[in-house]
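Retro notes (design track)

What went well: tokenization of the new backbones is finally stable.
What didn't: we kept losing track of which sequence belonged to which structure.
Fix going forward: every design gets posted as structure first, then sequence, in one message. First example under the new rule, 334 residues:
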């Protein structure tokens, strides 16, 4: 089984943004050493407790401090940017780190409406234009604009020997169809979807059309939230920090970042909160290494996924890396 890491660069209570980003570098290095296939870092804008607004900057640093793990944004939020500039950025990274760069492509705003307006004009119109933007980005990456188009002679320099690999991310049939119709590999964000998703992935498989200079067959990554520890009880304890933090953020709280386990245990939980926590737990995989392994294999088979991408949020950076290590020991290094 191929496993990968999605890092949202969360800031823990008592931690600075600089410390959180430094921990992201350490996480990527750990993934590199443990045999994970890829490390992607998310893009968010003016969201409390999330440190990374510029994945391209972090990927340059992380690429210089890792050896073989593939790197990419999870995702570059394309409606905010011109496809040509995105191609230039990721061609540069692919030139610096040959054969290691992906481009995860998404359409979400990644923050508030105010942040979206500050980043780009007419965001909703650009979301509507997403199919054309994806096609333009692919043309720039593959240098195959039709001769009659205005960009036919334009290069996204530097042109790497091994181009970055584009992936489309989403949680809807619309994103699945866009990926399939453009012959792109697809990432289904199960961890942030209210849908089970099998029907969405089926839409992707059914709509897939190979590109001349791209994917010859469909490929799926399933992204799930997981916390692993030596025992079920310890895993539940560690996971409580991220669960309570999600609860706080839903109420407009959580500005202090991911709470410590002690503070999470002592957070006053109402009846409605308890029900919300129960639903959130059902979307996560929490447990000892054997239990997590069993569940990941089950999901891989159920979704016909080629790879599982794990997002793990803990208060302690050590607990996070330990979670990835235990999973790797069960599924990658056994």
């Amino acid at each position: 089984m191929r496993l990968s890491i999605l890092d949202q660069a969360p800031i823990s209570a008592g931690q600075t943004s600089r410390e959180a980003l430094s921990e992201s570098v350490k996480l990527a290095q750990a993934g590199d050493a443990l045999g994970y296939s890829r490390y992607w870092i998310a893009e968010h804008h003016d969201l409390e407790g999330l440190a990374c607004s510029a994945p391209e900057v972090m990927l340059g640093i992380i690429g210089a401090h890792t050896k073989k793990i593939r790197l990419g944004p999870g995702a570059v939020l394309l409606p905010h940017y011109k496809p040509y500039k995105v191609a230039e950025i990721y061609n540069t990274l692919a030139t610096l780190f040959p054969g290691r760069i992906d481009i995860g492509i998404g359409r979400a705003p990644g923050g508030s409406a105010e942040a979206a307006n500050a980043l780009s004009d007419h965001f909703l119109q650009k979301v509507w234009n997403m199919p054309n933007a994806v096609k333009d980005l692919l043309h720039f990456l593959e240098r195959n604009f039709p001769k009659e188009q205005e960009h036919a002679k334009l290069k996204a320099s530097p042109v790497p020997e091994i181009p970055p690999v584009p992936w489309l991310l989403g949680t809807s049939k619309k994103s699945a169809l866009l990926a399939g119709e453009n012959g792109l590999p697809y990432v289904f964000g199960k961890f942030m979807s209210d849908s089970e998703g099998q029907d969405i992935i089926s839409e992707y498989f059914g709509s897939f059309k190979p590109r001349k200079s791209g994917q010859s067959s469909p490929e799926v990554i399933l992204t799930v939230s997981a916390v692993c520890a030596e025992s079920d009880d310890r895993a539940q304890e560690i996971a409580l920090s991220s669960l309570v933090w999600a609860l706080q953020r839903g109420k407009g709280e959580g500005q202090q970042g991911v709470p410590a386990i002690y503070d999470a245990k002592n957070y006053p939980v109402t009846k409605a909160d308890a029900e919300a926590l129960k639903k959130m737990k059902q979307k996560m995989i929490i447990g000892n290494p054997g239990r997590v392994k069993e569940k990941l294999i089950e999901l891989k088979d159920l979704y016909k996924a080629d790879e599982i991408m794990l997002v793990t949020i803990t208060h302690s950076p050590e607990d996070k890396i330990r979670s990835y290590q235990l999973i790797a020991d069960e599924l990658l290094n056994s």
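Added context from the reviewer: The chain has one domain: 2-231+286-331.
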